[in-house]
Design goal:
single chain, 249 residues, 9 helices
């Protein structure tokens, strides 16, 4: 039994290594990853600056904290990360290499898990850097100095959010197989869900993500928001695994 488990673990590690190499060999995902941090910084600065100008026009002191505009900016920037995670899956279907991938890895679930692990690792790094950049840029826009404790508090949450968002999008990619459909679904789930009514919004990925990043506890504690996002990510991967097992490459 231990021999079988060891062989499966080794096979899984090789699958992750292979998918990691594929991710960095594709130009589009790398460009998307490189854009996450500047997008977060630009949006955060803009939101912070708008808040500062609005307070100035009203003749009141700026009371907004950098974490507010920064967390909103990161949630928007996660759509760029979603594009990177999506392309690790959809590029294979649209380029015709998915068949070769599944022939090399007959245990198709292993491919889904390996791509999810890669997306989680990339999302963790990109999310952390985006959080740092967004908090600093928002503070500059507000004319304030970022607090180190707040900066790393937000960056840590952004890292976790990036990992879960990446996993969710990988699952969507295996279900939908096309870049346009996958990115549209990711946009709806990660951002557009904020437009839903108050009774529904907190239980969407967008609502859970916002509550987790902002930590305001308006609907529930921030850790519940992380759990909401985690459940959606796991459901997405489960759906992708089921589709891959039943559908031809």
């Amino acid at each position: 039994m231990s021999t079988v488990s060891g062989a499966r673990a080794a096979s899984g590690a090789r699958a992750v290594s292979a998918e990691w190499g594929k991710a960095w060999s594709l130009r589009s995902p790398v460009l998307c990853l490189a854009a996450v941090v500047p997008v977060a910084a630009v949006v955060a600065f803009t939101l912070g600056n708008d808040s500062a100008r609005a307070a100035e026009a009203a003749g009141v002191a700026v009371t907004a904290e950098p974490t507010g505009p920064a967390s909103t900016a990161v949630q928007i920037a996660l759509l760029v990360l979603a594009a990177a995670a999506m392309l690790t899956v959809t590029s294979e279907y649209q380029g015709g290499t998915a068949t070769a991938t599944f022939l090399a890895r007959p245990r198709r679930r292993q491919v889904v898990v390996a791509k999810s692990v890669v997306a989680a690792v990339l999302g963790t790094g990109a999310g952390f850097l985006a959080g740092v950049a967004a908090d600093g840029a928002a503070a500059i826009g507000l004319g304030a100095a970022p607090a180190v404790t707040d900066l790393f508090w937000l960056a840590g949450r952004c890292a976790a959010a990036g990992a879960l968002a990446g996993i969710l999008v990988v699952g969507l990619g295996f279900v939908l197989r096309r870049s346009v459909g996958t990115l549209t679904a990711a946009t709806v789930l990660l951002v557009a869900g904020l437009a839903l009514p108050d009774g529904t919004r907190p239980w969407t990925p967008a609502g859970g993500l916002a509550a987790f990043l902002q930590g305001d506890g308006s609907a529930y504690p921030s850790w519940v928001g992380m759990c909401v996002l985690l459940v959606w990510a796991l459901l997405s991967v489960a759906a992708g695994t089921a589709v891959v097992a039943r559908r031809d490459a």
